[in-house]
């Protein structure tokens, strides 16, 4: 990660500090050795009635679009973050302050490679939706007079992401180093993963591909669909799709029977995506769904999509079966299979924590009714016990949680277990069929035999490299970040001191030359050199005394 300093971010850093203080995070800032002058004369509001997670959500919303998007990406990591925090981050507002169209129009023109009026006969400059990374406009395509949705990135979004993510990365690293209670979350790794996901969402070609893959695999085309993409107009920063009239599930005016039918339809669609095809919408919350006037479901915003292989689906089926049976030992064994890490897992401790969670949900009668919430909590327990779960498993848990939440908004009596059962039974039949057994036993055995036959040749190559003294060992020293920061700060001050000395010597020489222009009989160039060296020397002294204190 890049180093960060308050002076290098003189505009943004005080703003961030002020917002964090306002939402009650002054103690954290003091642990990070924030310069005292940034903490003076700031407004402290009364936030004791809010939980820390609620305060964090409010702070992220006030910090701006990039911090909001960062929080939205973090809520896809229930394996690393507590379930209450994940739930709170899910409440981050999708609607953020829109950019003026005069800032967006040059980028739109650049992506279209022609004037906007030559492509769209009408385009409403007021966005119908304004997200963290882009904005959506309603327009009429000139070629066929059809209404389309025009999704275009915010102007200068890449520069904003770089600036804010550098600050977020610095905070994450400092918290990881200086706050022992947060080390288990590995915040620096979460930030790196979040930045990669944000960069992927900025490529609208990926979203267009996801829409087309879903449309190809979808078996409910008459009732469930995604807006068709206009490939001729879509680019990396511009996505043009058909315009879909409809309303969100929470605001749709439906009679109870229609609402119940749509809840079942949405649940079946999501489980078909997860279990039958392995390609699914990772964030099917109410903001990404539309109910059309003819009672169809439209999945919007395919920027986040999950992919799970057949083997991963078998593991999920075993996990759901273990949860339904309230079998903590079976859940523990499945978790061991899910892990991709090399760290030792304390299976006894893991089984104890899983058993407690399952017993709590069993007593509440929610073991089968709230699979999504239970899955999020299980993944967090896995993460706390060194079970490194692939990200796509966490996306499955999030998708199930979202579809449960959305379906219950339509039908309060909705239960996900009866919806999931037919798909899991069909998966089990496929798994234990002759073809499934061949795929699970014969093919892996052939692969293992092939790898085994390559071992003698690999050993021979290693011995030859040892004989030729061509073996290198790469070592990385962990936990040296504070030493590195101290060394960098010392070198920066040493460099500045050399510059100050050079300026003093150079200015002294210039003063004696009498070079014009003159002020009070002294050369201006020499006086400016003395002034610069004085200011730089003063900064070094203040910085040194502050760090020592």
Explain what you see.
The protein has 549 residues and is an alpha+beta fold. It has five domains: 12-91 and 159-200, no CATH class; 100-154 and 203-243, 2-Layer Sandwich (Phosphorylase Kinase, domain 1); 249-432, no CATH class; 433-466; 484-548. The chain has 20 helices and twelve strands. α14 packs antiparallel against α15 (371-384). The longest helix is centred in the last third of the chain and has 34 residues, at 434-467. The model has no long low-confidence stretch (mean pLDDT 82).
Give the class from helix and strand content and strand pairing.
alpha+beta
| Assembly category | single chain
Residue stretches low in confidence (pLDDT < 50, at least 5 long) are none
Radius of gyration: 29 Å
Continuous helix count? 20
Number of strands: 12
Distance between the termini: 27 Å
The chain-level mean pLDDT equals: 82
Strand count, sense and closure of the main sheet?
A: 5 strands, antiparallel
The outline comes out as globular
| Percent of sequence in beta strands | 5-15%
Q: Report helical residue fraction.
A: 55-70%
Query: What count of structural domains?
Result: 5
List keywords for this structure.
549 residues; alpha+beta; Phosphorylase Kinase, domain 1; 5 domains; 5-stranded antiparallel sheet; 3-stranded mixed sheet; 12 strands; 58% helix; globular
Topology record:
Elements: H1 12-22, H2 26-31, H3 52-63, H4 65-74, H5 83-89, H6 101-112, H7 116-119, E1 120-123, E2 129-130, E3 134-141, E4 147-153, H8 157-178, H9 187-201, H10 204-217, E5 224-225, E6 238-242, H11 256-277, E7 279-281, E8 289-291, E9 297-299, E10 305-307, H12 310-324, H13 328-338, H14 347-364, H15 371-384, H16 391-410, H17 416-431, H18 434-467, H19 481-511, E11 518-519, E12 522-523, H20 524-548
Parallel strand pairs: 5-9
Antiparallel strand pairs: 1-3, 2-3, 3-4, 4-6, 7-10, 8-9, 11-12
Helix pairs in contact: 1-3, 3-4, 4-9, 8-9, 11-16, 11-17, 12-13, 13-14, 14-15, 15-16, 19-20
């Amino acid at each position: 990660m890049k180093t960060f300093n308050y002076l290098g971010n003189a505009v943004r850093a005080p703003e961030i500090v002020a917002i964090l203080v306002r939402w009650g995070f002054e103690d954290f800032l003091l642990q990070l050795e924030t310069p005292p002058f940034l903490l003076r004369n700031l407004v402290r509001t009364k936030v004791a009635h809010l939980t820390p997670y609620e305060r964090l959500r409010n702070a992220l919303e006030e910090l701006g679009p990039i911090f909001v998007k960062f929080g939205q990406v973090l809520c896809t990591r229930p394996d690393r973050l507590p379930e209450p925090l994940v739930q709170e981050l899910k409440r981050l507002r999708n609607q953020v302050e829109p950019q003026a169209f005069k800032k967006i129009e040059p980028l739109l023109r650049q992506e279209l490679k022609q004037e906007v009026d030559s492509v769209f006969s009408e385009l409403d400059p007021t966005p119908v939706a304004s997200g963290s990374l882009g904005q959506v406009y309603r327009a009429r395509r000139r070629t066929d007079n059809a209404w389309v949705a025009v999704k275009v990135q915010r102007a200068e979004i890449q520069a904003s992401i770089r600036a804010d993510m550098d600050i977020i990365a610095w905070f994450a690293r400092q918290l990881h180093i200086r706050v022992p209670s947060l080390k288990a979350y590995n915040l620096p790794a979460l930030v790196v993963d979040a930045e990669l996901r944000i960069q992927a969402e900025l490529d609208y070609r990926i979203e267009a591909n996801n829409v087309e893959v879903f449309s190809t695999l979808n078996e409910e085309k008459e009732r469930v669909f995604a807006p068709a993409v206009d490939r001729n107009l879509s680019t990396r920063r511009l996505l043009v799709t058909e315009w879909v009239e409809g309303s969100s599930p929470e605001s749709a005016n439906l009679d109870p029977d229609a609402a119940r039918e749509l809840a079942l339809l949405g649940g079946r669609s999501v489980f078909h995506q997860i279990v039958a095809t392995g390609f699914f919408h990772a964030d099917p919350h109410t903001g990404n769904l539309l109910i059309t006037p003819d009672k169809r479901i439209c999945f919007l915003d395919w920027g986040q999509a999950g992919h799970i292989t057949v083997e991963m689906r078998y593991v999920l089926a075993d996990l759901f079966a273990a949860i339904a049976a309230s079998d903590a030992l079976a859940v523990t064994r499945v978790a061991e299979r899910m892990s991709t890490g090399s760290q030792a897992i304390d299976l006894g401790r893991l089984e104890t924590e899983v058993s407690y969670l399952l017993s709590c949900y069993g007593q509440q009668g929610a073991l089968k009714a709230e699979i999504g919430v239970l899955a999020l909590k299980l993944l967090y327990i896995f993460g706390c016990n060194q079970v490194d779960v692939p990200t796509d498993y966490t996306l499955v848990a999030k998708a199930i949680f979202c579809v449960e939440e959305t379906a219950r908004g339509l039908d309060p009596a909705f239960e996900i277990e009866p919806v999931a059962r037919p798909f899991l039974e069909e998966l089990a039949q496929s798994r234990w069929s002759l073809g499934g057994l061949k795929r699970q036993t014969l093919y892996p055995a052939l692969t293992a035999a092939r790898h085994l036959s390559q071992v003698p040749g690999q050993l021979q190559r290693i011995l030859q490299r040892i004989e030729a003294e061509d073996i290198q060992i790469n070592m990385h020293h962990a936990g040296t970040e504070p030493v590195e920061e101290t060394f960098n700060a010392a070198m920066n001050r040493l460099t500045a001191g050399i510059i100050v000395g050079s300026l003093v010597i150079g200015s002294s020489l210039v003063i004696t030359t009498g070079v014009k222009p003159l002020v009070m009989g002294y050369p201006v160039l020499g006086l400016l050199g003395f002034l610069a060296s004085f200011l730089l020397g003063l900064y070094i002294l203040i910085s040194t005394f502050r760090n020592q204190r």
